[in-house]
Amino acid sequence: MLELKGVGVEFGRRRVKALAGVDLRIGDGQRLGLIGESGSGKSVLALAIMGLLPENARLTGSITLDGQELVKMPDDRYSRIRGDAMSLVFQEPMTALDPTMAVGMQVAEVLRLHYVRNPKDAAKYNTDAAHIASNARQRVLDILDEVGVRDPERVAASFPHQLSGGQRQRVLIAMALINRPGLVILDEPTTALDVRVQAQVLRLIDSELAASGAACLFISHDLAVVAQVCSEVAVMFRGRIVEQGGVKQIFDAPQHAYTKALVAAARLDVEPGERLPELQDFGVDDD
């Protein structure tokens, strides 16, 4: 489904490295968790895959999706793939959603953009504007209902600020899934949610991925969340993948020093009054 070979990203004239030689592979239907501390390069990797890096970024290496090379692909071709064959759920819905547009229109926009662009859809469906608008509205209500939004008609007519954090995140998930992509990238999708709503959204993500059979790259710094959703984990440190393996293997028997430090920090097996573990305790230089 997705393969990265030697992917590097540098920013600006000084060529500040964010990613350095990343190799990663996700098979059909596979759920891969990507963990690491803030600043390790996880979100930059997601933007590189989606072709959303800023203009001052320099991307090297190879990124293929279903055998198609994405690096240096023309923008018009890339835009047909983005949102259709693969999609991205951002961490913070309030920055990802347009505050001036009803959320139903935003979900419908994703559908309409690919409705006529895809030759298979153009032949399969009546492309009359009125028909597309009518069908898109029903598809939007159906997908909102599918992701557990109560009263889809009211929510579709609402603006982002009129919805709760959990509702906004469900809207983003609906936008990511409405075209049934083969790959879904989730970048910290539950970080901004409280614990109860987080659990609901994680169950939703799990069930939707199971129903669609989509492959998933789940980015998080929360090891417990990754263990709940994914079967395999890759650990990122300073723009590199330092370790990859099954969830049980990585969390129970980590091999790389940084992974050991990360797992220890998450578990915090210390007594009251004891010093918390630091990177240096595991032989990792934190400079």
Would you kindly provide a written description of the structure presented here, covering whatever features stand out?
The strands form two sheets. A six-stranded mixed beta sheet has the order 6-7-8-3-9-10, sandwiched between helices. The chain has a four-stranded antiparallel beta sheet with strand order 2-1-4-5, covered by helices on one side. The chain has helices at 42-50, 75-81, 93-96, 103-115, 119-124, 129-146, 152-156, 165-177, 195-212, 223-229, 247-252, 257-267, and strands spanning 2-11, 16-26, 31-35, 57-65, 68-69, 86-89, 183-187, 215-220, 232-237, 240-246. A hairpin with a 2-residue loop joins strand 4 and strand 5. The chain is 41% helix and 23% strand. The chain has a single domain (2-253), classed as P-loop containing nucleotide triphosphate hydrolases (Rossmann fold), CATH 3.40.50. It starts with a strand and ends in a 20-residue tail after the last helix. It is of the alpha/beta class. The model is unreliable at 116-127 (pLDDT under 50). Helix 4 packs across helix 6 and helix 8 runs parallel beside helix 9.
Element-level helix/strand string: EEEHEEHEHHHHHHEHEHEEHH
CATH architecture tag: 3-Layer(aba) Sandwich
* Uncertain stretches: 116-127
Strand content: 15-25%
* Assembly level: single chain
Provide the structure class: alpha/beta
Amino-to-carboxy terminus distance: 36 Å
Overall number of domains = 1
CATH superfamily (homologous) name: P-loop containing nucleotide triphosphate hydrolases
Anisotropy-based shape: globular
Query: What integer value in Å does the Rg equal?
Result: 20 Å
How confident is the prediction overall: mean pLDDT? 85
